[in-house]
Amino acid sequence: MAEHLKDDCxxxxxxxxxxxxxxxxxxxxxxVFLDIGPLAEGHTLIIPKYHSNTMDEVPxxxxxxxxxxxxKVALALGTKDYNILQNNGAIxxxxxxxxxxxxxxxxxxxxxxxxxxxRNEPGLEALKAVQEKILARIQAAV
Length: 142
Description:
Strand order of the largest sheet: 1-2-3-5-4
Helix content: 25-40%
Number of helices: 3
Largest sheet: 5 strands, antiparallel
Strand content: 15-25%
Distance between the termini: 33 Å
Mean pLDDT: 95
Number of strands: 5
CATH topology: HIT family, subunit A
Shape: globular
Radius of gyration: 17 Å
Order of helices and strands: HEEEHEEH
Number of domains: 1
Structural class: alpha+beta
């Protein structure tokens, strides 16, 4: 198996062809296939051909391939409404610990992704403090 793939990972095994997929597209950096437990017809997964648990661990050249592929899938689905979903970590609802992106059609109110969004309103001063903290971390990383 390639050096950046893992023998015990379901998605890595799909990448090398050891587990069958309903492949839609493939590039040097990504594999695109139908989800076997779709939320709506055409629910698609896009996975980088690089094993990592979370998106922040994936090299940029792999990530740069993802959104153009998601756009192609979204256009091919022909639905006006859709979600692009990517989860990192168990409490963020990640179930397969190989980074993956969902393209989920939303053809009507009942099919597709359902989201309950719990908004907070911390106020401008609290948001400015968060902004400063994040900007400091970004500057430290550069």
